[in-house]
Structures are given as C-alpha cells and as structure tokens.
UniProtKB/TrEMBL annotation:
This is DNA-directed RNA polymerase subunit. Pfam families: RNA_pol_Rbc25, SHS2_Rpb7-N. Coiled coil: none annotated. Keywords: DNA-directed RNA polymerase, Nucleus, Transcription. The lineage of its organism: Eukaryota, Viridiplantae, Streptophyta, Embryophyta, Tracheophyta. Residues 32-86 form the RNA polymerase Rpb7-like N-terminal domain. It is found in: Nucleus. Signal peptide: none annotated. It comes from the Eukaryota. Gene3D superfamilies: Nucleic acid-binding proteins (2.40.50.140), RNA polymerase Rpb7-like, N-terminal domain (3.30.1490.120). One of its GO terms (biological process) is transcription initiation at RNA polymerase III promoter. GO terms for cellular component: RNA polymerase III complex. Belongs to the eukaryotic RPB7/RPC8 RNA polymerase subunit family.
Length: 223
C-alpha cells in the first residue's frame, strides 16, 4: 500500500556505494508518530527504528519508490507523553534506502510469468515488472502451452532462426516507465493484487532479452 505524502517530507539522492547501483536511492524523510508504551523500556533509537521498519519496510511511497531498508536516523525530537494512552510522540528525521530505477536503466531479472500479453519479471524482492508484447524485438510470436491455461513461451525470429525466451536465463531489459497507479476504490475478487508501483520494460534492442541470445550470437561469430 503506498504511503501518503501528507505526513512525509522527503528528498532523494543516489545510494552511496563503491559499486554504485543507480536503482537504489537514499531518501531523507521527516515523520511524526507514536511509540506505544510497551516499547518505551527499550533504548529510544532501537524502539523508533523498529516502528519505522513496521511503517515503511516493503512499502511504496509514491514518487520515491519501494522501501527496502531503514538506513539511519538523523535526529529525534519530542517524546511527549499523552496521559490518555501513555504513548510518546516523536518527530524523527531519518533516511530510507529506496528502490526506484530510472527510465533508461538496464536491469537483469528472471521470468515470473509468460502469457499472450507479454512477460512478468522478478528481481527477487520486487515482482511487478512487465514487458508488454509491443516492446519485444520484432518479429516476435507467442506459442501457447496446451497444458497450462493462458501460459506459453515467446520467441523472436531473427535471420530465420528462432530465439526462445524459455524462462531459464536471466533477461536484461531497459526501464521504459515507472508508474504509481492510484489505489482502486473497489477491486473484483478475481483481480490480481493491487501493485502500488509498476515498472514497464523493453527488450527491443541489441544486447537485451535473455543473456543466452547474445552469448550464442558471439559464439556463432567466432566460429
């Protein structure tokens, strides 16, 4: 479920690393929230970090991305205890590690689903990556699996040779779009679970698609 910006003030910078991966960012956020009485016996930073992880970990913040970790806590203010419930209220400035790839970035993923509309990919901690059929190399065709409803394999025909997406190899794709769909008011029971962040990718250029396509091509050239 995406978190509202009404309570958040944040900014994002690329995550610092010796091997910088641009799809991860540090987002600085200020947030005011309650710490329940049951946690007030803990060191305050430990109690607050635990509450931050409950609030943000594996959640999507619109325009910032998916939170994968609480990086650090920069400041803690407040600690006011309301007599009515015994909870303490703090205003905390902290940084989160966010997953948010940029448009044009190339990422490696594995096939999670293959159907007539295209591919659904996964990078382990995030599964809402879609490669629609119109962003495949051309000409590509879908071969239905007679034993699996609505499933099958895609293949690209190049130089009269079929190049199959068999779901075994990693697939390299270029990020075409990152979107944050609005939360539906009502959702049919048979509908797929709501995805608060969706990545659309393309494999329609040299070097993209299953890595074996290009390994095989290099081996063919050398022979």
């Amino acid at each position: 479920m995406p978190l509202s910006w009404r309570r958040l003030v944040g900014s994002a910078v690329p995550f610092p690393s010796h091997h910088l991966v641009q799809m991860f960012y540090l987002s600085r956020i200020e947030h005011t929230f309650r710490v329940p009485p049951s946690l007030l016996n803990l060191p305050i930073e430990e109690a607050i970090k635990g509450e931050l992880e409950k609030l943000f970990l594996d959640k999507v913040i619109a325009d910032l991305g998916l939170c994968v970790s609480v990086y650090d806590i920069k400041s803690i203010e407040g600690g006011f205890i309301f007599p009515s419930d015994g909870a303490a209220t703090y205003t905390v400035v902290f940084r989160l590690i966010m997953f948010r790839p940029f448009v044009g970035e190339i990422i490696a993923a594995k096939v999670k689903e293959s159907n007539a509309t295209g591919l659904r990919l996964s990078i382990g901690f995030f599964d809402d990556i879609y490669i629609p059929a119109h962003l495949f190399p051309k000409p590509s065709s879908f071969k239905p699996d007679p034993n699996k409803k609505d499933k099958g394999t895609w293949e690209w025909e190049y130089d009269e040779e079929p190049y199959i997406i068999d779901g075994i190899d990693e697939i390299k794709f270029r990020v075409h779009n990152v979107s944050y769909p609005p939360i539906p008011i009502e959702q049919p029971k048979e509908a797929k679970p709501f995805a608060p962040m969706v990545i659309t990718g393309s494999i329609d250029e040299d070097g993209l698609g299953p890595v074996s396509w290009w390994v095989d091509a290099e081996e063919t050239k050398e022979s």
